Amino acid sequence: ERFALLSAALCHDMEHPGVTSQFLSKAADATRGRYRDIIIRDALLEKHHALSALKLMCDRDVGILEGLSSTQYYQFRSSVSKMILATDMTRHFEYINHLKEFSARRDEDPAVEM
User: What is the chain's Cα-based Rg?
Assistant: First the structure.
């Protein structure tokens, strides 16, 4: 989990073009064409960051994931993808509200889990 968190933190803006997802969507940038087959149009840049990071990490010449079992490998990929996608600012307030609700429930009952 820590390795996935650290990896996601390091890669969350990998290959960032310096413009927003909204700008890319409106401009129909060439990057957008890469993802036209993805049903969900949200988090365009975050998808790019996640795919780029995982492509690099899965490269046999890099070898960063070689010691992982099959189960660990798929869990790592899933965790990194989810964490990078969670950096989409269009969902920021949704996440903040979720944390506030969790905190309020936790204050009432310390045994409450996310």
Answer: 17
Task: Report CA-CA distances (Å) from 97 to 83, 90, 100, 104.
Answer: 17, 13, 5, 11
Model-wide pTM > 0.85: no
pLDDT tens track for 45-61: 888 888 899 998 888 89
Helices 2-11/44-58 angle, 10° precision: 120
Question: Do 52 and 12 form a contact (C-beta atoms < 8 A)?
Answer: no
Predicted local confidence at residue 36, as pLDDT:
53
Tokens 């049903």 label which residue?
39
Structure tokens at 66: 């070689």
DSSP H helical segments within the chain, as ranges? 2-11, 21-27, 30-34, 44-58, 70-85, 92-108
16 contacts 88 by C-beta, under 8 angstroms:
no
Residue with token string 């990490």: 57
